[in-house]
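Input record (Table S2, row 370):
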Amino acid sequence: MPDYYSVLGVERGASEADIKRAYRGLARKFHPDVADDKISAERHFKEINEAYEILSDPLKRSHYDRFGSVPNSSGAGGFGPFASPEGFGDIFDMFFGGRAGPTRAAGPQRGADLRYDLQITLEEAYRGAEREISFQHLAGCEICHGSGARPGTSASRCDRCGGSGVARTSRQTPLGAFVTQSTCPKCGGEGEFAAAPCESCRGHGRTEQTRTLTVKIPAGVDEGSRIRIASAGEGGTRGGPAGDLYVYLGVAQHPRFRREGADLFLDIPISFTQAALGGTVSVESLEGQPLDLAIVAGTQTGSAYRLRGRGMPHVRGGSRGDLLVTVHVAVPAKLARRERELLEEYAELRGDKIEDRSFFERVKDAFKAD
Ligand SMILES: [Zn+2]
Ligand SMILES: [Zn+2]
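Output record (zinc ion complex):
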């Protein structure tokens, strides 16, 4: 629990008037219209109000002074001006624009945008793809065509809010009178009210519907790429346009290829003789067609070959990235007898000292068929 006295910047023995004065000064200072950092202002503002709630109430203040804690809010009518969570929320939201309700006027409303996360393979990102997706969204009710009124009847202007969709209540606070605006509870902000609501959408004009569509994924997309499909989001209300659908792409890890931007990386094994003598090896590619890679005689393990233009395409076209193939010299785990003889002869020519096999192994080999 914070020290409420230092939050308000007053002495422990401060009078009620001092506390009120300190609170007003701080509340104005952290008003979002003057504060540069809204996030930190919001946090301060909450803290200041919490401190004032306690210290402005003689009972709570004496409890806090004695025990350093706050008594339960049960009983005596709550916590003053910011007492109920809802009441506090209303004022708070008015300052920081937290809710859509208060300033919204009845009229056409655009539907919400939707997000769909789609996982694709690296091959699909390489070639481009078409994927069918299915999702739930709120769309115009097919029974009442979005009016919310039962067919044959019509919605009329809401008598509670006069068609504005906004309910106003006035509240007295230490900062003065605040008019709190909220969504009209009768029409739900629609401004219109159907006496005989449509049974399909219960008067909302929209119902949850499943939509299926094909997403065209261009070649070259990467993790986090976003595809916007206009008007495929939620349907608007009162004739407003639909929102958009955003498809966020995730690209699955490939078991062999690694991607960095437009470049692809691949590790392949080559034999000791290919490394020493040179030769051509076949390299798999994301295109599906194997590529020929010429290994230069004397290639060291860990060397990388760059195959220009064999990497990922760019979404906006133009040149492709490269494919970088790192070769690793693989040492045979087992040798046939003849292979061993040749290698021993090679070692002798090089003057390499090699492990001499035991007498028993020689005997064993002598009985083995070639
Ligand atoms: Zn309907
Ligand atoms: Zn209303």
